[in-house]
Amino acid sequence: MKFSLHTFFMMDDESVKCCGQNNMGQLGLGHTNHPVSTVTDLPFSGVKNIVCGDSHTFFIMNNGSIKCCGRNDMGQLGLGYRGAPVSRVTDLPLAGVKNIVCGAHHAFFMMDDGSIRCCGSNYYGQLGLGHMNHPVSMITDLPLSGVKNIV
Question: What does each C-alpha distance from 151 to 18, 76, 126, 145 come to in angstroms?
């Protein structure tokens, strides 16, 4: 079973703090020192929501932008490439995101217009794209509408 071993705290003053596993840069601190056992400040604020996968993290910002960090060997960050971990919080060029749902090594983006986009591991067809090509590093449209929730 895969699960997240890192933790984020969204504070009343809109700052963000974190701790836990960081071997893939999933805390966004600019390094992969592991573990981070002391609650540590992130150098930004204005976060609306934080969503974690196994070793990757997305930040939905109050201004509508998306930031990400962590493991990206399966394209799970949606940056259009895969490779070494992204240890510094990076802007994701995607706007109009209402919510993000992460699996262990993949992500779904629920868009404001009702569309669904996805990226990451697809070994077992978990992205629902009609194939099992692996991985999908470009954020890709999923031909679905009327989605209420993704689990």
Answer: 24, 16, 11, 16
